[in-house]
Design a protein that fits this description.
two-stranded antiparallel sheet, 10 strands
Length: 275
C-alpha cells in the first residue's frame, strides 16, 4: 500500500487521512491542500484559492489596461467643442465634449436666466390693486397679497384697523350702538373739533399730521346710553362726553389704555351722566 509521507518530519502513513491527523496533532497546523500560483508555497484552505496571501495576489493580478474588470477599450480621442483642441477621454466617464482646460475654466457652463417669466417660481409678476382706504393704485406681488384688504401705506393700514375695530369688529363689542348716531351728533362732533383745535388731546397730533380730521370719541360709549332704561342714544351727544383723538390714541381709548377720568380732565369736563 502506498505510504503518505509527512512534509515536515517525513513519517509515513497508510492513508492521507492518517497523515492529516498526524500533521494537526504533531505540528499544530492542518495538512496543506493548495499550492500558491505565485510563490509555489503549499498552504491549507477550505475553499478554492490560487494565492497564499494578498501580497501574492497583488503581484500576480494586474488591474491596468485590459486587465481592469471595467475596461471598455481604453481612451478615445475627441475634438473640444469650445477651443477645437484634441483630447483623450474614457468613454465610461462621459461623452467627450470639452477638453480638460475648458472644463477647468468652466467655459462650458452657461448661467441660466432666472429673471421675470423665466424664473421657476414666476407667477405673473406684480398685480395692480386699489388701496382699500384711499383707493390709490398700488402694485403688489401675489406672495405679498395675504388677505382681503390691501393698503398702500402704514397710515392707511392704521386707518383700516381703526375702522375694523369699531362696532361688532371691536373685541369688546357687546351688541347695539353701531347704527347711525342720530340727531345731535354732527353738531356736537363739530364743536368738539373746534374746542380741541382739530388736534388729538393726548399726543397733540394736528389735522395736517393725521391727514384728516381727528376722530371724535365718546367717553361714555353710545351703547351704554342705548342699553340704559333712563336715556336715549341721542343723550350721549353732549360736549363734555366727546373728545378729539388721533387714530392711535382712539384705539388705545377703545381698549381701555387711556382712562375716562384722564380724558375728561383734558377737556375740563365733569361727569354729567352715568348711563
Amino acid at each position: 500500500m502506498t505510504q503518505h509521507a509527512c512534509p515536515v518530519c517525513g513519517d509515513g502513513f497508510d492513508s492521507r487521512r492518517g497523515l492529516g491527523v498526524h500533521h494537526s496533532a504533531a505540528h499544530g497546523t492542518l495538512l496543506p491542500n493548495r499550492e500558491c500560483s505565485n510563490c509555489g508555497r503549499e498552504f491549507h484552505c477550505e475553499h478554492e484559492k490560487k494565492y497564499c496571501s494578498e501580497e501574492c495576489c497583488r503581484c500576480s493580478v494586474s488591474f491596468e489596461g485590459e486587465n481592469h474588470p471595467n475596461y471598455q477599450g481604453g481612451k478615445e480621442t475627441a475634438e473640444c467643442e469650445l477651443c477645437g483642441d484634441e483630447f483623450e477621454y474614457y468613454p465610461s466617464e462621459k461623452e467627450g465634449l470639452y477638453c480638460p482646460t475648458c472644463v477647468e475654466n468652466e467655459r462650458w457652463r452657461s448661467t441660466p436666466v432666472v429673471e421675470g417669466k423665466k424664473h421657476p417660481q414666476w407667477n405673473g409678476g406684480k398685480r395692480e390693486l386699489a388701496c382699500a382706504v384711499c383707493n390709490e393704485t398700488i402694485e403688489r406681488y401675489p406672495s405679498e397679497i395675504t388677505g382681503d384688504v390691501t393698503v398702500c401705506s402704514e397710515e392707511c393700514r392704521r386707518s383700516c384697523l381703526s375702522e375694523s375695530f369699531t362696532g361688532d369688529g371691536h373685541p369688546n363689542w357687546k351688541g347695539g350702538g353701531n347704527e347711525p348716531y342720530g340727531k345731535g351728533w354732527n353738531g356736537v362732533r363739530q364743536r368738539a373739533l373746534e374746542r380741541d383745535g382739530y388736534s388729538c388731546v393726548i399726543c397733540s397730533k394736528t389735522e395736517e399730521e393725521i391727514g384728516r380730521n381727528p376722530d371724535v370719541h365718546h367717553i361714555t360709549p353710545v351703547r351704554a346710553f342705548i342699553e340704559s332704561d333712563r336715556y336715549q342714544k341721542e343723550d350721549a351727544h353732549y360736549l363734555e362726553n366727546v373728545v378729539s383723538l388721533c387714530i392711535d390714541c382712539h384705539r388705545k381709548a377703545d381698549f381701555g389704555k387711556i382712562s375716562n377720568t384722564r380724558l375728561r380732565f383734558l377737556i375740563g369736563a365733569e361727569v354729567r351722566h352715568e348711563a
